[in-house]
Design a protein that fits this description.
Layout (H helix, E strand, L loop, with lengths): L2 E8 L3 H9 L6 E5 L10 E3 L7 E3 L10 H10 L3 E3 L7 E5 L2 E4 L4 H6 L5 H8 L14 H8 L2 H16 L8 H4 L1 H10 L2 H12 L8 E3 L4 H11 L3 E3 L3 E7 L2 E6 L2 E10 L3 H11 L1 H8 L3 E12 L11 E3 L8 E6 H4 L8 E9 L11 H16 L7 E12 L5 H11 L4 E3 L9 H17 L1 H5 L9
Length: 459
């Protein structure tokens, strides 16, 4: 497979695929993927043993704010499923029962999730110091702006649901840079939300959506668009500097590239950087990751008393349960199950329970059966279940992460960039936004690249 290209992309997850697609059909780009299937964690699986049942191994759906992904899907001709408006409803467990999260001021006044004192504390949020706690942890920020009870009841489960982490250990700026920008621009969360509501009155933000038939249809369409510029089943063994470019060894031969985009998971990126840029690899090596377990379980509709009228629920640490939350997959997309059935996806592990990933399937299924069964009032055993482990799936964006990213930018040469959930965000929308931003910067500098002057550093 010996060949030379202008740009080599290592990894065909959503980041690598979106970057290569956005570079355009005329770009001299080659994408190499070690596995036989492109898409990475974006993986929709049909269950052969139960025709009509499918589940998402990776992201479940996308929010209406994921505009760049939606635009890309429209360009690719991927048909969309817009979830029912009830799927946007969220629950949090309070004393063992699911309680709806207040997403509007009237519901905030009447919610049973917070005490009268906590609601009063929330009402004073616009008067808090707008410059305090922006550089610290999520917990510090929430305690300052919202109060201790709101931190424990609302923020803690939200953070575990997104990052599987401890809000006391995670950097606010690294995990929620948009929130920092909102405070800096508007002075408070409430003021920012009011401004957002005014801006969206003329153009309302749509609710949840996903490709009709599963999330994998998006990455499959991207892969099809790349055609022969994507090669699967090719593992990159090493990267060496060679003049102004790089010499890449794969298990099928050598590739010479002027520029490289590493779009692989954290540990793989660390290994590939180790020989050619050891200091950059050392920065990545300081990061810890959270491991997760997904427990997928299907029931007949009659087996569950709860109406399942929402996206799912999250569990605060104070509830002392062993799972982090449960998604109502068949509410998000009813077509993922045969008629008369429902599908749940329970997540466990993370920073709160790191040892659960080592437990056996029977123990994990027992946790789901007992804890989720009590919350949702289920009857009998599920008609189908499956356990999926995600070792080191979510990098911990800790308090040192902003400085770590800056050092990484300084250590990486201008013609080697990294994309992934260990940089600026863990969600699929964040990954695509970052990939498109980088591709746009590189595309704008193609004339400069042709002169061998190098790229703008990773955004």
């Amino acid at each position: 497979m010996d060949q030379a290209v202008e740009t080599l992309v290592v990894g065909a997850g959503i980041s690598g695929l979106a970057y290569a697609y956005a570079r355009g059909t005329d770009a001299d780009v080659l994408v190499l993927e070690a596995s036989e299937r492109p898409g990475g964690l974006v993986h929709t699986i049909d269950v052969d043993a139960r025709p009509g049942l499918r589940y998402e191994r990776g992201p479940e759906a996308l929010s209406g704010s994921a505009r760049a992904v939606r635009t890309m899907a429209d360009e690719l001709g991927v048909a969309m499923h817009d979830a029912d408006k009830h799927a946007s409803k969220r629950y949090v467990i309070k004393r063992g029962l699911p309680v709806e999260v207040p997403l509007s001021p009237p519901k905030l006044v009447t919610t049973r999730l917070l005490s009268p004192l906590a609601k009063l504390r929330l009402a004073t949020e616009p008067f808090r110091n707008s410059t305090k706690s922006l550089e610290g942890s999520i917990a510090e920020f929430a305690r300052h702006r919202l109060g201790r009870e709101a931190l424990e009841t609302l923020v803690d489960p939200m953070v575990s649901g997104i990052h599987a982490g401890d809000p006391a250990e995670l950097s606010l700026r690294a995990c929620f840079p948009q929130l920092v920008a909102m405070i800096q621009q508007h002075g408070s969360i409430f003021n920012a939300l009011r401004a957002q509501q005014r801006a969206t009155k003329s153009a309302p933000t749509p609710g949840l959506w996903k490709p009709a038939g599963g999330m994998q249809l998006l990455t499959t369409a991207l892969a099809d668009k790349l055609g022969s510029r994507l090669k699967t089943g090719v593992k990159v063994r090493s990267i060496e500097s060679a003049g102004r470019g790089f010499k890449i060894r794969t298990d099928l031969g050598r590739v010479d590239a002027q520029n490289i985009v590493l779009a692989v998971p954290l540990r793989a990126a660390t290994t590939l950087l180790n020989s050619t840029l050891p200091e950059a690899a050392d920065e990545l090596r300081t990061m810890r990751c959270e491991s997760l377990v997904g427990i997928f379980h299907a029931y007949t509709r009659e087996q569950i008393e709860h109406p399942l009228d929402g996206f799912g629920y999250l569990v605060p640490r104070a509830e002392n349960l062993q799972h982090l939350g449960t998604l109502f997959s068949s509410t998000i997309e009813p077509a993922c199950v045969p008629e008369g059935n429902v599908l749940l996806r329970t997540l466990a592990g993370g920073a709160r329970y790191p040892d659960l990933v080592e437990k056996g399937d029977a123990e994990l299924a027992r946790i789901a059966s007992q804890e989720v069964g009590t919350i949702l009032s289920t009857f009998g055993e599920p008609v189908w279940k499956r356990i999926v482990r995600y070792p080191e799936a979510l990098p911990r964006l800790d308090l040192k992460h902003p400085e770590r990213l800056e050092r990484l930018r300084q250590l990486l040469p201008r013609n080697l960039c990294v994309l992934g959930n260990f940089t600026r965000g863990v969600g699929l929308s964040s990954l695509v936004d970052q990939a498109l931003e980088l591709a746009s910067a590189h595309q704008a500098e193609e004339s400069v690249l042709a002169q061998g002057a190098g790229w703008t550093p990773c955004p």
